[in-house]
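Lecture notes, structural biology module. Today: joint structure prediction for complexes of two components.
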Amino acid sequence: MSLPNRDTIIAIVLLFFTGVLIWASFDIRSPDYGTLAPSAWPRSVLAILLVFGLIYLFQSLRAMPSEQNTAQSDERGGLVGWFIKYRNPLWCYFIYFLFLATLPIFGALVGGILLVFCLLSILGGFAPKKLLLHGAIATISMGAMWSIFTFGLRVILPRSSFIDGI
Amino acid sequence: MLIENLLGAIAEIGNLQTLAFMIIGATAGLISGAIPGFTIAMAVVLTLPFTFGMPPAQGIATMIGVFVGGLSGGLMSGILTGIPGTPSSVATTFDGFPMARNGDPGFALGLGVWASFFGGIISAVLLIAVAPQLARVGLEFQPWDYFSLVFFALTITASLAGQNLVKGLIAGALGLLIATFGEDDINGVARFDFGIEYLQEGFGFLPVLIGLFAFSRLMTDVRDPKAATMALTDMQEVSIRIEHRRAALTVLKNWGNLIRSSLIGVFTGILPAAGSSISNVLAYDQAKKASKTPEEFGTGCANGIIAPESANNATAGGSLITMMALGIPGDIITAVMLGALLIHDVIPSPSFITEAPVLAYSIFLAFFIANFLVLGLQSGALKLFVLVTRVRMYVLAAVILAYCGIGVFALHNIVSDIWTLFIFGIVGYILRNLGFPLAPVILGVVLGPIAEKWLSRSLAISTDVSLFLTHPWSLFFIIAAVFSMVFTLYQRDRGKRPWTRFYPPALMLSLSLPLFMMEGVIRPVVAVCLVGAGLLLLYRAKKPQTVNEG
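The predicted structure, tokenised, for the full assembly:
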């Protein structure tokens, strides 16, 4: 039995997502005022999405499976292959997630410096000379950015919970 | 009235602070336009956070500086390295790079710089002349017409979809859907919040935009570990003086090519979804066809640089005409600008020029000034460009990622906006990798709430939906929308399938119907002309001919 092609899987996920939102649209409260119910517009959009999703599904099912499998077989290398291929974006997202999760603790300045330093080192390498350079870039760039927003644009950026004033 | 508005605009943006911001914006645009892989749209998107604290006119003027700078910046890398900085300068490399390689890089750059300048000025004049006239028509619009106009703009997503029509339409619908999350603007009712506090406010336009467009783009740029650690270009040193005098005289000597290419640029800009990436190639092609020495094109011919560079800068004026007069974005950059206006509580619509004339004329004036600024800044930007190209991609990506976070926080001072940025950074990256275009998503996010508002107003006046077909302008836009949806198929099959021969006459005959329904003399006369032209094309289309003609 051949595996469904990528487009078919995407179409099914899209239709599932649309279905969930159509179901959720019935939870939208209808007030006694107004002529256009709050759920009317989202439902119209979802109906359009549903139609396009179905067309996409049929298109993907009609596509030649042999062509798609040949095209995909070159790229397949299992889960490990996928991780290796996308390791840079995956690291970046993970580090960004950590930055956001620790933002209340480190604040924008310290957290930002750590974010830039970690991103630079993960993407550029950990050689001692490079680490020094990355540290300098992180400190200077984030320091400048923080100063522009704090003093120039008067934005109160998230503060650190352990260092007063920054 | 014109003088009064212009004086008001001068008072609004003719101050040192605004000019300084425009200079910074134009320089940033020049540099980002010159860097291959960095798009003008991304530069404009990243400028947005800086403009929150500014008055609307100042903020938009800064963004226009970036926009015009970006359009001119692409020529530097295109001419010096053969790699176009942006898609809008692809055709510039055809003759610019050979000319530079033949030992005349200063002249090649000069031609690009001056052609860009004159192209920009021609389109600025047309912008000031045409936009207010077109906007007068917009004053006749009623809620049904407004809704149909936005509906027409939404169908542009089909044209923005490129090769995969269904994926583009899905992307557009996803954009509309994203905009429906959170509190409904009309009734104040929460939608799709799933009981989660974070979802009750909905997704901010800016975090969504930066996440989808900039964050995901940076992830694409650093995906390949080897490419991420390389310098942006392999250009090491450059000591070129731009030959201004010789280049300016050559451009003016070839005024026919300059005007034709600029008009192509403006017209392409007015057409929804047809941006500078199309106009530069189109103008190059027409210049070659019109030339007495077409064999010189591709070898370092002056007209081969003048045509694409004047056209791509003129496109900016054209797309601003559509945005200013009708309140619909012609491309991704004007969509961002519309979003910026919304952030400043300025609702773009056909009555925009009448209701906010000073702001409108400030935009006209800013576009005019930006062309002069870019002309003056090119020489300095060339040196900066050489410096920037030595930076490694991963360094730029890391710093910009941090900036994205700080920038979106500045809008509402809430951390949840950075989470939105992060989430849509992932969504954008997935969509990119799955082959879904992102421009329709952005268009959907911008236009969704506007469409819902006008639909609600129409239904509040009358629940009779036939009014959408009986109001002439509404019918006009609905017909245009239907043809716009089929346009991608028409482009694909043109000359290959017989039905495409009937597309232009069908469009003309259909559009004549609402024009006949309109009052006055001119519009029915235009309708008669359309019927005549349509019947002629129909007669020609019916005549048997070989299919492969296009």
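Point to remember: Chain A has seven helices and no strands.
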